[in-house]
Structures are given as C-alpha cells and as structure tokens.
Write a structure and sequence with these properties.
The protein is of the alpha/beta class. 44% of the residues lie in helices and 20% in strands. The chain has three domains: 83 residues, Winged helix-like DNA-binding domain superfamily/Winged helix DNA-binding domain (Arc Repressor Mutant, subunit A, Orthogonal Bundle); 106 residues, Periplasmic binding protein-like II (D-Maltodextrin-Binding Protein, domain 2, 3-Layer(aba) Sandwich); 89 residues, Periplasmic binding protein-like II (D-Maltodextrin-Binding Protein, domain 2), CATH 3.40.190. Strand 1 and strand 2 form a beta hairpin.
Length: 301
C-alpha cells in the first residue's frame, strides 16, 4: 500500500472536502481525488460518501481512519527521528507565527539572525491556523495561546501589547473617546466572528457592548489600514502601528490586557543545533524588545 494514498485520505477525512485537502497539502484537487480513488480500488470499498456539502466517511472509511492515524503518527515520528540527526548550524528552520509578529518582530530581526548564524535559512509561515508541529507543518511556532498539542517544549517569551488607533480625520468628525466605555458610541473595527477569543478580543467586545462593529477583519495590518483611512477605531498590536503615519493612539494610559506569547517546538527537534539556535535567538530578541512588544515605548503614531 502506498503511504501517499493514506496521507491524502487522511487530509480529505480531516478537511471534509477535496478542495480543503488540496489546500492543506498544496496540491490540486484532481491529485487528491486520484489518490483517494486508488485507495478505494486497492481495498475494493467505498471510503467516502460524496455529498454536495463535502465528503463524509463511510463505515469502511471510519475503520481505515482509526488505523491510519496510528500509521501517520509512526511515520511522522520516524521523520522527526531522521531530522533529529544533528547537522550543525546549517539548514532550513520553518517558523510559524501570526501576521502581527512576522513583519514587526521576526522579519525586523532577520539581518541579525543571518549575521549570527549565516548557515541557517529561515522559512516564515504566516498563519492564524495552529500548524501541527508533530506533523512537521513547522519546526518552531510563536502562538498567542498556550496549546495542549503533542509532545511540545513550551516557553513564554513575552506579552504583546495593544493600543487603540484612529485617524485625525475620524477624530475631527466623531470626537475622541475619553474612556473605554465611550467606544460603544463610536465606529469600532473588530475581528471577524470565529476569531479565537483571548483577553484582548474580550476586552474590546465588552467595551462596545451591543454596538455593532463598523468593519471586521482579522489581520492587524488591515484593521490599522481601515483606521488610517478614517473607517473607525481599531485595536491592534502597538508594534504593528509603530511608525505608521496618519493614525493617533487613543487612551495610551489605559490598561488594555495584552496577549501572552508562547514559543513552541517539538521535543524531538529541540536538541537540533539549528533549531536550538533559532529558539534561543527568538527568545533573546523578545527579551531585548520586551518594552516595544508590550507597547510601552510610544504613545503616538
């Protein structure tokens, strides 16, 4: 049996559709369909019910899924074991983080990483979705919530601070809020429904109460761009707004709760020299830039 066929089967089972599986595997849907068809032909059973709303497992598919997950775990463990053969301070390390961290923190520090470790090549994956480190979707992750996933080494590296921002034109037209409670009388830019709740999201939604947001989107840069364009008031990480012209930070002395930042790696890879070097570098830079990450350096934009 071809392991690739099982891998595609697991992706369809997990995503519930050919298109979703194709996106997760970075292939086209026809390739996914071909592997699923090959598996069904191999076992002479139907593994999925093809429905208008997606692919649902048949009883035979459920049975194969239970067995396949164990095989998948063993294959990934084998891959990590081979990867853990240390080749020194050279090679590629894949880091996943949200957009709020990639540009203002990780990319900002790339020249220094290259200077210290010229043999290491960094791949940055900008994702809100929590990539699975056990499946090697990434080597290292920076996350905004402490996970309960797999055999991970977890370390808190700081707190990301947030500020309220609006354009001078908006403030001239609608006034400046004097307290957080005043936000319910303003045009507020929010995250989309379904965005993972954290203390910062909860704080904003508590302030605006039943007031509907004027605009919603998840990327911090997009919320800030909307605020800069005069759409309304946005709550974004202070790092994202740093140096941006055309916005003013509001209520700078207000104690808006920040989000804890967690640095994660699978324990099998933590002893690799190149991975260890990236982990130590990220941690050291986070400590050096703690005030900046927390939004304690500037009140304006």
């Amino acid at each position: 049996m071809n392991w690739d066929d099982l891998r595609y089967f697991l992706a369809v089972a997990g995503e519930g559709s050919l298109s979703g599986a194709a996106r997760s595997l970075h292939v086209n849907p026809a390739t996914v369909s071909r592997h699923v068809d090959a598996l069904e032909e191999r076992f002479a059973v139907r593994l999925f019910d093809r429905r208008q709303d997606g692919y649902g497992l048949t009883p035979a598919g459920e049975k194969l899924l239970a067995r396949s997950r164990g095989i998948e775990s063993e294959m990934f463990a084998l891959g990590r074991a081979f990867d853990a053969e240390d080749r020194g301070l050279a090679g590629t390390v894949t880091v996943t983080a949200t957009e709020s961290l990639t540009v203002p923190f990780l990319i900002r520090n790339l020249p220094l990483l290259e200077q210290r470790h010229p043999g290491i090549r960094l791949h940055l994956v900008n994702e809100y979705r929590m990539l699975n480190l056990s499946r090697r979707e990434a080597d290292v992750a920076i996350r905004l919530a402490r996970p309960e996933q797999g055999d991970l080494s977890i370390r808190k590296i700081g707190v990301m601070g947030f500020g309220l921002y609006a354009s001078p034109a908006y403030l001239e037209a609608h006034g400046t809020p004097k307290t957080p409670g005043d936000l319910r009388d303003h045009r507020v830019i929010d995250w989309l429904d379904g965005f993972p709740e954290n203390v910062t999201v909860t704080w904003l939604r508590r302030q605006i109460g039943d007031t509907l947001p004027i605009f919603s989107t998840n990327p911090a840069s997009a919320r800030l761009a909307a605020a800069r364009g005069g759409v309304g008031i946005a709550l974004v990480p202070c790092m994202v707004a740093e140096g941006v012209q055309g916005v003013v930070r509001l209520l700078p002395d207000e104690a808006i709760p920040g989000v804890d930042l967690w640095l994660l790696v699978h324990r099998d890879l933590a002893r690799l020299a190149k991975v260890r070097a990236v982990l130590d570098f990220i941690y050291d830079r986070a400590q050096s830039e703690a005030d900046r990450i927390a939004g304690r350096l500037t009140h304006g934009g």
